[in-house]
């Protein structure tokens, strides 16, 4: 129960009400003590006036009875600037303290009441007050502290019991209100979430907002919107998965058909007819591109990039290796390469995956320049920035067409390279996302294209 919301509300309510009662109890017990002493002063004044009215014609037994009824030991009345001992008791113990009740400050009353509760030893005290109805200038009484302390303790116990009853009653009411207004609606939301998690594709399990509390209503509406969107995405992914499975089957069969057609086209190259000899190479190239596309489609459907094995990679050596390999791949040697990297720069990455990304970007840059038939240059720049490292691959090619820019990182999107599958940049982007980084098109135009990579220095992949 203590771990539940309503149970904690119940416990906290009792604690807070009791604390509030403590702050009320201290001044109330001080007020009770003051009223108790004023009542004794009033009784003593009545007894003294009765004695004065009888002009001293009262025997000792009656005088003792007047003192006992007033619960005092003696009474001093000051009238006409004369201080007169009106009633007294023989054999009285010495007075321990004197308290003046003529307009005392509140803090003094609280202090005296607290000290009286803590002091268990019986004492005699003097109390000074103002006579009621101006029956004299001053009245003083001497009394024992034990009856006063007993009355204060009895009053405190009654206040404590009343406070406990009030706090428990209030806590029970709050407990019921919290369960009705908060706990039950929260349980309904939790139950709806559990039910939806069991079958998120079932639209009937989406929560229907019914909360009457504004905050809970907002939470239910937000959950409803999230579940609706998630269900829609799951259905869309399911349809895409089915479509992808169908495309994979078609691509598999189509690849076999195209392989046979390629073999036949290879036989056509041996034919001596001029028209056939002119058309056959184009046919073979078209068939090879079609086979490459089907194989790339099957590979993309099956492949899942493994998690990167992060290590400290000397970037300058890795870039030099990528550029050397790509330089060997060009035929005419019209593309030059350059690297501008901070000396001794070390990045945090998977060396094999980073090599794949750079090789892909450098190869694309070289092919873009080669397509123009003009000499050009591929430059790799790298350095540090806030939160990680940047690597840029720049070329002096003709830039990307508008159609390629709009769907640059989408799989199988149209590219500027003839025969391309449109998967290279998609795979590069996925690899960098696995590192916690990103791949973006920084700039493109008639003077060339720049792709920018970012690798974080402190984010675990």
Automatic annotation (TrEMBL):
<keyword id="KW-0597">Phosphoprotein</keyword>
<keyword id="KW-0547">Nucleotide-binding</keyword>
<keyword id="KW-0812">Transmembrane</keyword>
<dbReference type="InterPro" id="IPR003594">
    <property type="entry name" value="HATPase_dom"/>
</dbReference>
<dbReference type="InterPro" id="IPR003661">
    <property type="entry name" value="HisK_dim/P_dom"/>
</dbReference>
<feature type="transmembrane region" description="Helical">
    <location>
        <begin position="159"/>
        <end position="182"/>
    </location>
</feature>
<dbReference type="Pfam" id="PF00512">
    <property type="entry name" value="HisKA"/>
</dbReference>
<dbReference type="GO" id="GO:0000155">
    <property type="term" value="F:phosphorelay sensor kinase activity"/>
</dbReference>
<feature type="transmembrane region" description="Helical">
    <location>
        <begin position="6"/>
        <end position="30"/>
    </location>
</feature>
<dbReference type="GO" id="GO:0005524">
    <property type="term" value="F:ATP binding"/>
</dbReference>
<keyword id="KW-1133">Transmembrane helix</keyword>
<feature type="domain" description="Histidine kinase">
    <location>
        <begin position="249"/>
        <end position="459"/>
    </location>
</feature>
<keyword id="KW-0808">Transferase</keyword>
<keyword id="KW-0418">Kinase</keyword>
<keyword id="KW-0902">Two-component regulatory system</keyword>
<keyword id="KW-0472">Membrane</keyword>
<keyword id="KW-0067">ATP-binding</keyword>
<protein>
    <recommendedName>
        <fullName>histidine kinase</fullName>
        <ecNumber>2.7.13.3</ecNumber>
    </recommendedName>
</protein>
<dbReference type="InterPro" id="IPR005467">
    <property type="entry name" value="His_kinase_dom"/>
</dbReference>
<dbReference type="Pfam" id="PF02518">
    <property type="entry name" value="HATPase_c"/>
</dbReference>
């Amino acid at each position: 129960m203590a771990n539940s919301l309503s149970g904690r509300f119940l416990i906290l309510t009792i604690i807070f009400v009791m604390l509030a009662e403590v702050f009320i109890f201290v001044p109330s017990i001080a007020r009770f003590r003051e009223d108790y002493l004023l009542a004794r002063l009033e009784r003593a004044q009545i007894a003294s006036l009765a004695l004065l009215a009888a002009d001293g014609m009262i025997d000792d037994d009656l005088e003792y009875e007047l003192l006992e009824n007033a619960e005092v030991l003696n009474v001093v009345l000051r009238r006409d600037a004369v201080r007169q001992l009106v009633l007294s008791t023989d054999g009285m113990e010495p007075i321990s303290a004197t308290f003046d009740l003529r307009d005392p400050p509140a803090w003094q009353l609280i202090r005296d009441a607290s000290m009286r509760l803590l002091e268990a030893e019986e004492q005699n005290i003097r109390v000074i007050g103002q006579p009621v109805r101006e029956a004299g200038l001053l009245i003083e009484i001497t009394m024992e502290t034990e009856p006063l302390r007993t009355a204060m303790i009895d009053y405190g116990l009654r206040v404590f019991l009343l406070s406990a009853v009030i706090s428990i009653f209030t806590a029970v009411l709050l407990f019921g209100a919290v369960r009705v207004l908060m706990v039950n609606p929260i349980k309904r939301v939790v139950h709806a979430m559990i039910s939806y998690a069991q079958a998120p594709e079932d639209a009937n399990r989406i929560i229907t907002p019914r909360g009457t509390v504004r905050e809970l209503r907002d939470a239910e509406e937000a959950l409803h919107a999230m579940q609706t969107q998630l269900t829609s995405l799951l259905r869309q992914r399911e349809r895409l998965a089915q479509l992808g499975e169908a495309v994979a089957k078609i691509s598999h069969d189509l690849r076999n058909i195209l392989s046979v057609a390629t073999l036949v086209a290879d036989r056509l190259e041996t034919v001596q007819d001029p028209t056939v000899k002119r058309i056959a190479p184009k046919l073979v190239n078209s068939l090879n591109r079609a086979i490459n596309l089907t194989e790339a489609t099957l590979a993309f459907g099956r492949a899942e990039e493994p998690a990167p094995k992060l290590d400290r990679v000397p970037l300058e050596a890795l870039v030099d290796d990528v550029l050397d390999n790509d330089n060997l791949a060009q035929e005419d040697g019209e593309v030059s390469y350059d690297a501008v990297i901070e000396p001794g720069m070390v990045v945090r990455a998977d060396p094999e995956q980073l090599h794949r990304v750079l090789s892909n970007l450098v190869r694309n840059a070289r092919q873009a320049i080669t397509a123009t038939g003009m000499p050009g240059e591929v430059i790799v720049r790298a350095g540090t920035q806030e939160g990680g490292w940047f690597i840029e691959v720049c070329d002096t090619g003709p830039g990307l067409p508008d159609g390629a820019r709009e769907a640059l990182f989408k799989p199988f999107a149209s590219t500027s390279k003839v025969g391309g599958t449109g998967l290279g940049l998609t795979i590069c982007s996925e690899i960098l996302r696995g590192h916690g980084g990103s791949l973006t098109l920084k700039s493109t135009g008639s003077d060339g294209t720049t792709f920018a990579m970012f690798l974080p220095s402190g984010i675990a992949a």
